[in-house]
């Protein structure tokens, strides 16, 4: 206990990853991870600030929060940092009209975005919509641009559903990067902007916060590079330690 | 002319890429590139040895040769080096049972291969068969292996059909490499074994041969790394010079 107290000294806020930490997804639904509903409730009863930090890009923010509420979690939309709203801001600021390689479940987030005559590609966890035809369309859009812009909602390698491990958006980002000879701009974890935005919402400095996640790159590595502490849970996609991906070893739960 | 004579001094054999050099593919068929039927005929009337070096992995060798013959080319199966037969040899030698992420058009090449209880993945230009479901199956097979083996028939970024540029197998290889944290073994161009095998069939040393292709990495770079000379044609997928990929600048046709 002394060791934990020392490791977490000065922490005033907790950033919680969602998928693989609070619940495991399943076709259109999900199952809470044992103890997680109560853990969130306890955190919220404590003096710690809590924010939910997800790279969810198959469901709209509203759908995700409704699902989590149905599973018993105390959560509201205003407590969540998610990549789709941040992406819409970037698109508007830069006058970008995307070809959307995304899941139908998140399409409503882009309702206000002009997608005519695309001058960039936005890629998210499209699941079954990662058909050859859709990937090839994204590829062709990028190859026709003088300055190709590929914006990715996260860059996860895979995630866990109750049925097993599933390929995540990062794999398909790598495919387009290689085919086009370009590098994607990542909106979402592990980009520093994502973590800074979440910290700002909490009114905390990096050294006052700890990130809890199951992804050694997106959660642990990203948070550490921002000066935060990080805890890796052994649920979700957790398989083994991959220290080569992290600045320093994560604290395990 | 003097310059060309000097550059090609001592050349006794020509290795010809097929797609983008002899013809542009189209749905189930193709169109010869202007002048290519006659160019092959002239080469075959000359004293030069000729070999066709393809990474074709959507069609069986028999189907490819039949198509080329229908388009007017003087070509037979024995004159072609292709990755599928080489892959079958490797699978048998190493006792590997693949999950085949391939196009139905090439499935017959693997008729004699045991695919039960897979202990590796073979990936080729699967086209429309690059569905999320099939990619995820390949990913899950690899993640369940202690020593994951991914064998790729070529690693091309894209190729050209009459309808436009199309994503090639290399993009999907990168996706699986990233998701699984592994590196694929490439059978086909630009692997040195591929070019050595073709040279052996021709009875030539590397310095006696010139490779002609439209792919700066697979054709030009691969051949140069084996000590051959290389010519890049401006047909097929040719877009612009990408010197960063090559050991030395290619000779242009």
Q: How much of the polypeptide of chain A forms β-strand, as a percent range?
A: 15-25%
Distance between the termini of chain A: 13 Å
Strand order of the largest sheet of chain A: 5-4-1-12-13-14
One letter per element, helices H and strands E, the order of chain A comes to: HEEEHEHEHEEHEEEHEHEHEE
User: Helix coverage percent of residues of chain A?
Assistant: 25-40%
Instruction: Characterize the biggest β-sheet of chain A.
Output: 6 strands, parallel
**Biggest protein-protein interface?**
A-B, 32 and 32 residues
Count of alpha/pi helices of chain A: 8
User: Given the helix and strand composition of chain A, which structural class is it?
Assistant: alpha/beta
Mean pLDDT of chain A: 92
Shape of chain A: globular
Unreliable stretches of chain A: 243-247
Rg from Cα of chain A = 18 Å
Q: Based on DSSP secondary structure assignment, what is the total number of beta strands of chain A?
A: 14
Question: Quaternary arrangement of the chains shown?
Answer: homodimer
